[in-house]
Amino acid sequence: MDKYNQKSRGRPKKYKTPAQLRRAVEGYFGEISTVLPVADEHGKPLHNVNGELITRLAYAVPPSIQGLCLHLGITERTWGNYSDDEMFEEICEDAKLRVKAYLMEQLNVRDRPQGIIFNLQNNYEMKEKRETGVNIQHSMSLSEMRDLILSESAEMREDDAED
Question: How far apart are CA 163 and CA 157, in angstroms?
Fold first, then answer.
């Protein structure tokens, strides 16, 4: 039996169409957010070069995939299944991007962003980029390369200890 004729396993999808899932996802973000005008230091609303009021999206509750799943009445595993389904993939990517954008914004406003950094590195595939200043020459011997790597590694540990 091919995959199109085999019997369905498990419970049927709660959101059968992309439109249903999109409405539910929009409902989540709509319930926890508001649009606020951007003001200058005197409280005067700012306008862009086209004369339109500049606004920003503000969240009363931090958005998260877990919060979204609770709102949708599904598990994270089920959310993963929707994410893997080509029909729903774009909606899931958009929701993930919204949460990631919120976290990125929080990096700029939080005094202690370690938790945000951890979340981005472990859940959003963001990695810290480090410049080592190592320029390995092809003509180096293995022992010279090893010494250079050990030296750079020690410097990195010292830098981490200072932070």
Answer: 10
Question: What span, in angstroms and rounded, lies between the C-alpha atoms of 94 and 110?
Answer: 24
CB half-sphere exposure, 24, CA atoms < 13 A? 20
Fold of 18-128: Topoisomerase I; Chain A, domain 4 (1.10.132)
- Whole-angstrom Cα distance, residue 144 to residue 136? 10
Listed by start position, the domains of the chain span: 18-128
For 85: left if phi > 0, alpha if psi spans -120 to 50, otherwise beta; the answer is beta
pLDDT in tens, 39-98: 999 999 999 999 999 999 999 999 999 999 999 999 999 999 999 999 999 999 999 999
The β-bridge relationship of strands 33-37 and 55-59 is: antiparallel
User: In this structure, are residues 131 and 122 in contact, taking their beta carbons and an 8 Å threshold?
Assistant: no
Nearby residues of 66 by Cβ (< 8 Å), 6 or more positions away: 76
